[in-house]
Amino acid sequence: MAARDEHEKVVVARAAAALVEDGTLVALGSGSTVARVAAALGERGSRARFAVASPATEAAAQGAGLTVVDAADHDRYALAIDGADEVAPDGWAIKGGGGAHTRERILIAAADRFLCVVGASKLVPRLTRAVPLELQPFGLAATLAHLPGAVLRDAPPTADGGVLADLPADLTDPRALAARLDATPGVVDHGLFAPELVRELLIADGDAVEHRHR
Ligand code: 5RP
Question: With a threshold of 0.70, does the pTM exceed it?
Protein backbone atom coordinates (compact mmCIF):
# COMPACT_ATOMS: atom_id res chain seq x y z
CA MET A 1 0.00 0.00 0.00
CA ALA A 2 1.24 3.46 -0.82
CA ALA A 3 2.55 5.33 2.22
CA ARG A 4 0.16 8.21 1.44
CA ASP A 5 -2.86 5.87 1.49
CA GLU A 6 -1.74 4.41 4.79
CA HIS A 7 -1.18 7.89 6.26
CA GLU A 8 -4.62 9.04 5.11
CA LYS A 9 -6.26 6.03 6.78
CA VAL A 10 -4.73 7.05 10.09
CA VAL A 11 -5.64 10.72 9.58
CA VAL A 12 -9.26 10.00 8.68
CA ALA A 13 -9.55 7.43 11.46
CA ARG A 14 -8.47 9.97 14.08
CA ALA A 15 -10.92 12.52 12.68
CA ALA A 16 -13.75 9.98 12.77
CA ALA A 17 -12.92 8.91 16.32
CA ALA A 18 -13.14 12.54 17.45
CA LEU A 19 -16.78 12.62 16.29
CA VAL A 20 -17.88 9.67 18.45
CA GLU A 21 -19.64 10.75 21.62
CA ASP A 22 -19.32 8.83 24.85
CA GLY A 23 -22.44 6.93 25.84
CA THR A 24 -23.68 6.45 22.27
CA LEU A 25 -24.22 3.21 20.41
CA VAL A 26 -22.09 3.10 17.28
CA ALA A 27 -21.77 0.60 14.42
CA LEU A 28 -18.33 -0.12 13.03
CA GLY A 29 -18.00 -1.71 9.59
CA SER A 30 -14.96 -3.60 8.46
CA GLY A 31 -11.64 -3.14 6.71
CA SER A 32 -8.27 -1.60 7.36
CA THR A 33 -9.62 1.96 7.76
CA VAL A 34 -12.16 0.82 10.33
CA ALA A 35 -9.43 -1.08 12.20
CA ARG A 36 -7.59 2.24 12.48
CA VAL A 37 -10.79 3.94 13.66
CA ALA A 38 -11.03 1.32 16.42
CA ALA A 39 -7.41 1.98 17.38
CA ALA A 40 -8.00 5.75 17.41
CA LEU A 41 -11.11 5.30 19.56
CA GLY A 42 -9.05 3.21 21.96
CA GLU A 43 -6.38 5.93 22.14
CA ARG A 44 -9.11 8.43 23.07
CA GLY A 45 -10.48 6.09 25.74
CA SER A 46 -13.88 6.15 24.07
CA ARG A 47 -16.82 5.27 26.30
CA ALA A 48 -19.20 4.62 23.43
CA ARG A 49 -20.45 1.07 22.78
CA PHE A 50 -19.85 -0.63 19.45
CA ALA A 51 -21.58 -3.19 17.27
CA VAL A 52 -19.14 -4.62 14.74
CA ALA A 53 -19.55 -6.00 11.24
CA SER A 54 -16.82 -8.62 11.25
CA PRO A 55 -14.67 -10.81 13.47
CA ALA A 56 -11.68 -8.71 12.36
CA THR A 57 -13.33 -5.51 13.58
CA GLU A 58 -14.35 -7.24 16.78
CA ALA A 59 -10.73 -8.21 17.38
CA ALA A 60 -9.56 -4.66 16.61
CA ALA A 61 -12.19 -3.14 18.89
CA GLN A 62 -11.47 -5.48 21.75
CA GLY A 63 -7.74 -5.00 21.28
CA ALA A 64 -8.30 -1.25 21.59
CA GLY A 65 -10.21 -1.72 24.83
CA LEU A 66 -13.61 -0.76 23.39
CA THR A 67 -16.93 -2.11 24.62
CA VAL A 68 -18.41 -4.42 21.98
CA VAL A 69 -22.11 -5.27 21.97
CA ASP A 70 -24.03 -7.97 20.11
CA ALA A 71 -25.68 -6.59 16.96
CA ALA A 72 -28.47 -9.13 17.46
CA ASP A 73 -29.66 -7.09 20.45
CA HIS A 74 -29.85 -3.63 18.88
CA ASP A 75 -32.08 -2.11 16.21
CA ARG A 76 -30.74 1.45 16.02
CA TYR A 77 -27.35 3.12 16.14
CA ALA A 78 -26.58 6.79 16.57
CA LEU A 79 -23.80 6.52 14.04
CA ALA A 80 -22.22 4.01 11.66
CA ILE A 81 -18.60 4.38 10.58
CA ASP A 82 -17.27 2.42 7.64
CA GLY A 83 -14.92 2.66 4.71
CA ALA A 84 -15.48 2.18 1.00
CA ASP A 85 -13.55 0.94 -1.99
CA GLU A 86 -14.74 3.61 -4.43
CA VAL A 87 -17.03 6.63 -4.12
CA ALA A 88 -18.33 8.40 -7.23
CA PRO A 89 -19.30 12.10 -7.41
CA ASP A 90 -23.01 11.20 -7.48
CA GLY A 91 -22.65 9.38 -4.15
CA TRP A 92 -22.76 5.80 -5.38
CA ALA A 93 -20.16 3.71 -3.61
CA ILE A 94 -18.69 0.26 -3.96
CA LYS A 95 -18.02 -1.57 -0.72
CA GLY A 96 -17.22 -5.17 0.05
CA GLY A 97 -13.56 -5.37 -0.85
CA GLY A 98 -13.22 -7.07 2.52
CA GLY A 99 -16.31 -9.18 1.93
CA ALA A 100 -18.35 -7.85 4.86
CA HIS A 101 -20.82 -5.77 2.84
CA THR A 102 -23.93 -7.73 3.86
CA ARG A 103 -23.39 -7.08 7.54
CA GLU A 104 -22.18 -3.56 6.84
CA ARG A 105 -25.39 -2.69 4.99
CA ILE A 106 -27.48 -4.03 7.88
CA LEU A 107 -25.64 -1.83 10.35
CA ILE A 108 -25.55 1.25 8.11
CA ALA A 109 -29.28 0.97 7.36
CA ALA A 110 -29.98 0.90 11.08
CA ALA A 111 -27.93 4.03 11.81
CA ASP A 112 -29.15 7.60 12.13
CA ARG A 113 -25.96 8.71 10.33
CA PHE A 114 -23.42 6.89 8.19
CA LEU A 115 -19.98 8.42 8.19
CA CYS A 116 -18.07 7.02 5.22
CA VAL A 117 -14.35 7.33 5.96
CA VAL A 118 -11.97 7.35 3.01
CA GLY A 119 -8.66 8.58 1.73
CA ALA A 120 -8.82 10.88 -1.28
CA SER A 121 -7.73 8.09 -3.62
CA LYS A 122 -11.09 6.36 -3.03
CA LEU A 123 -12.90 9.28 -4.71
CA VAL A 124 -13.19 8.34 -8.37
CA PRO A 125 -14.77 10.07 -11.36
CA ARG A 126 -16.86 6.96 -11.96
CA LEU A 127 -17.16 3.50 -10.44
CA THR A 128 -14.93 0.93 -12.12
CA ARG A 129 -14.42 -1.97 -9.73
CA ALA A 130 -16.01 -5.36 -10.03
CA VAL A 131 -19.03 -5.48 -7.73
CA PRO A 132 -18.48 -7.64 -4.64
CA LEU A 133 -21.17 -10.26 -4.08
CA GLU A 134 -22.04 -12.52 -1.17
CA LEU A 135 -23.81 -15.64 -2.44
CA GLN A 136 -25.67 -18.44 -0.73
CA PRO A 137 -23.60 -21.62 -0.94
CA PHE A 138 -26.80 -23.61 -1.58
CA GLY A 139 -27.45 -23.83 -5.32
CA LEU A 140 -24.30 -21.91 -6.11
CA ALA A 141 -24.09 -23.10 -9.72
CA ALA A 142 -27.66 -21.97 -10.39
CA THR A 143 -26.97 -18.58 -8.84
CA LEU A 144 -23.80 -18.13 -10.89
CA ALA A 145 -25.78 -18.94 -14.04
CA HIS A 146 -27.66 -15.66 -13.42
CA LEU A 147 -24.38 -13.77 -13.09
CA PRO A 148 -22.29 -14.26 -16.23
CA GLY A 149 -18.73 -13.06 -15.70
CA ALA A 150 -18.83 -13.35 -11.91
CA VAL A 151 -15.57 -14.66 -10.50
CA LEU A 152 -15.51 -16.59 -7.24
CA ARG A 153 -13.14 -14.92 -4.81
CA ASP A 154 -10.23 -16.94 -3.47
CA ALA A 155 -11.32 -16.24 0.09
CA PRO A 156 -12.78 -18.16 3.02
CA PRO A 157 -16.56 -18.12 3.53
CA THR A 158 -17.96 -15.01 5.18
CA ALA A 159 -18.77 -14.98 8.89
CA ASP A 160 -22.29 -16.05 7.88
CA GLY A 161 -21.16 -18.87 5.59
CA GLY A 162 -21.61 -16.93 2.36
CA VAL A 163 -19.52 -17.38 -0.77
CA LEU A 164 -17.72 -14.27 -2.04
CA ALA A 165 -17.54 -13.39 -5.71
CA ASP A 166 -16.87 -10.30 -7.82
CA LEU A 167 -18.89 -9.24 -10.83
CA PRO A 168 -17.26 -7.07 -13.49
CA ALA A 169 -20.21 -5.05 -14.76
CA ASP A 170 -21.32 -2.02 -16.71
CA LEU A 171 -21.68 0.59 -13.97
CA THR A 172 -23.23 3.39 -16.00
CA ASP A 173 -26.56 2.73 -14.25
CA PRO A 174 -25.71 1.44 -10.74
CA ARG A 175 -29.33 1.68 -9.58
CA ALA A 176 -30.51 -0.66 -12.32
CA LEU A 177 -27.66 -3.06 -11.62
CA ALA A 178 -28.36 -2.97 -7.87
CA ALA A 179 -32.03 -3.72 -8.52
CA ARG A 180 -31.09 -6.64 -10.77
CA LEU A 181 -28.73 -8.06 -8.14
CA ASP A 182 -31.33 -7.53 -5.38
CA ALA A 183 -33.73 -9.62 -7.46
CA THR A 184 -31.30 -12.42 -8.29
CA PRO A 185 -32.03 -15.62 -6.36
CA GLY A 186 -29.06 -16.69 -4.27
CA VAL A 187 -27.47 -13.25 -4.06
CA VAL A 188 -27.35 -12.45 -0.36
CA ASP A 189 -26.13 -8.92 -0.99
CA HIS A 190 -23.92 -6.87 -3.27
CA GLY A 191 -21.47 -4.05 -2.75
CA LEU A 192 -23.35 -1.22 -4.48
CA PHE A 193 -24.37 1.39 -1.89
CA ALA A 194 -26.78 4.08 -3.04
CA PRO A 195 -26.35 7.85 -2.51
CA GLU A 196 -29.29 7.81 -0.07
CA LEU A 197 -27.04 5.83 2.28
CA VAL A 198 -23.78 7.63 1.53
CA ARG A 199 -24.63 11.16 2.65
CA GLU A 200 -21.67 11.99 4.86
CA LEU A 201 -18.08 11.58 3.79
CA LEU A 202 -14.99 12.14 5.88
CA ILE A 203 -12.11 12.44 3.42
CA ALA A 204 -8.41 12.58 4.23
CA ASP A 205 -6.17 14.18 1.63
CA GLY A 206 -2.65 14.14 3.01
CA ASP A 207 -2.96 15.73 6.44
CA ALA A 208 -6.16 17.62 5.59
CA VAL A 209 -9.61 16.28 6.45
CA GLU A 210 -12.81 17.37 4.71
CA HIS A 211 -16.21 16.57 6.19
CA ARG A 212 -18.55 16.56 3.22
CA HIS A 213 -22.36 16.40 3.50
CA ARG A 214 -24.20 15.44 0.37
C1 5RP B 1 -15.37 -4.21 3.60
C2 5RP B 1 -15.54 -2.84 3.08
C3 5RP B 1 -14.46 -1.87 3.38
O4 5RP B 1 -15.01 -0.74 3.96
C5 5RP B 1 -13.78 -1.49 2.07
O6 5RP B 1 -13.35 -2.67 1.42
C7 5RP B 1 -12.59 -0.56 2.33
O8 5RP B 1 -11.61 -1.29 3.00
P9 5RP B 1 -10.26 -0.60 3.50
O10 5RP B 1 -10.62 0.34 4.59
O11 5RP B 1 -9.40 -1.75 3.96
O12 5RP B 1 -9.65 0.12 2.32
O13 5RP B 1 -16.49 -2.49 2.43
O14 5RP B 1 -16.44 -5.03 3.24
Answer: yes
